[in-house]
Amino acid sequence: MKPKIILIKNAHIVNDGAIFNGDILIEGEYIKEVSDSISAKSSDVHVIDAEGKYLLPGAIDDQVHFREPGLTQKATIESESKAAIAGGITSFIEMPNTYPQTTTIDKLEEKFDIASKTSSANYSFMFGGTNDNLEEILKVDAHNVAGLKLFLGSSTGNMLVDDTAVLEKIFKSTKLLISVHCEDEATIKKNFEEYLDKFGDDIPIKYHPLIRSQEACYLSSSKAIKLAEKTGARLHVFHLSTGKETKLFSNKIPLKDKKITAEVCIHHLWFSDKDYDKKGTLIKWNPAVKTEEDREKLWEALLDDRIDVIATDHAPHTLEEKSNVYTKAPSGGPLVQHALPAMLEMHHKGKISIEKIVEKMCHNPAILFQVEKRGYIKEGYFADLVLVDLNNPWTVNKDNILYKCGWSPFEGTTFRSRITHTFVNGSLVYQNSKFIDVKAAKRLTFNRS
């Protein structure tokens, strides 16, 4: 069968720290040519005139919760991956705290099987660590699995790894990249009991960042980093939320050489504790959204490269669940559809360059996880591409939200930038708010020795 050929012309191509005007030729799944000008050499070529739109590599989201299996009333791999490609995210890495948990090889492969049949975006999964599954961890193939996820706080089921000896043994034994959720459980429990005694179940949401405090985050992050330094493990700290934690990370060496890296999420860059009065439990996350000062310090660390990656921690719950009182309202919210538009809005506000957005959402996740042939616009790479119109405003509302849960913390927000086209493995899967060929996704592979 002859491979399909697509020619994208007249785009502002954003790649590797530069923006240049040019054309892209896609043949089959791959980028065949990147040049100032490419001519269609036959009538079989499908030409798309970008008309000066910006062409970005597809974003790689290194932390999502798509809730399948077991929690499909909130989301499915099918529903959330479609929302992702509408938001310019062409690859995702999903977390292990589903039901059942992804803590055995059999359960991991069951999730890969679901994704192979239903995902619209390229996919991989984290394997979950517990206090008693080291034998299973050692079976994981590092070429075919994104990495290992450890909950050092705020876990579900039995996934809290709180046995110090076990934790050190895992760090010493695995060559997998270890991603961690860092909040100190003892500190949180003490704070929670104090506010529960004072208010009962209906604790005002504004106290969430005091319960899940800066101290809880820093204590856990610093311990994880010390253990990584002691054992030589490759450590990636998820969703930093405090300014104090940013001091634990370095920008003195290139990302490819770092053994300890960090991520920040959209909500911690956008919201602050001043938004709790308006948004309530809709912006209840773990770790909590904290102060304006914390948010500013996170931006500083992101821009000076102490923080390496921007992700979503997409974690949908039903609106009914989120509408409960504090103690019964779950933490987490949906973000994959709106993450890239939110960052482009920050570009419009002068906060970050488009080149830096691409670095943190496309290039760096590919480098950090050693994803094969993705994250860049390069000849020979998979054609995961996103066309963006920077001047095509739209407002988030119930009618255009694609998450299965049907709500967004960005409802009512007007974004000036719009994703107009998304390509996954060379297939045009999304164009002008319509899904086209949504079965082009592939399992991510990893270039690791």
Automatic annotation (TrEMBL):
SUPFAM superfamilies cross-referenced by the UniProt entry: Composite domain of metallo-dependent hydrolases (SSF51338), Metallo-dependent hydrolases (SSF51556)
InterPro entries according to UniProt: Amidohydro-rel, DHOase/Allantoinase_Hydrolase, Dihydroorotase_CS, Metal-dep_hydrolase_composite, Metal_Hydrolase
Domain of life, source organism: Bacteria
GO MF terms, alphabetically ordered: allantoinase activity; dihydroorotase activity; metal ion binding
Keyword set, alphabetical order: Hydrolase, Metal-binding
Cofactor annotation: Zn(2+)
Domain Amidohydrolase-related residue range list: 54-429
Cellular component annotations (GO), alphabetically ordered: cytoplasm
Keyword Hydrolase carried by entry: yes
GO biological processes: purine nucleobase catabolic process
EC code: 3.5.2.3
UniProt keyword Oxidoreductase, yes or no: no
Xref: Pfam families: Amidohydro_1
Function: Catalyzes the reversible cyclization of carbamoyl aspartate to dihydroorotate.
Similarity-based family: Belongs to the metallo-dependent hydrolases superfamily. DHOase family. Class I DHOase subfamily.
UniProt-recorded name of the protein: Dihydroorotase
Organism for this UniProt entry: Mariniflexile litorale
Taxonomic lineage of the native organism: Bacteria, Pseudomonadati, Bacteroidota, Flavobacteriia, Flavobacteriales
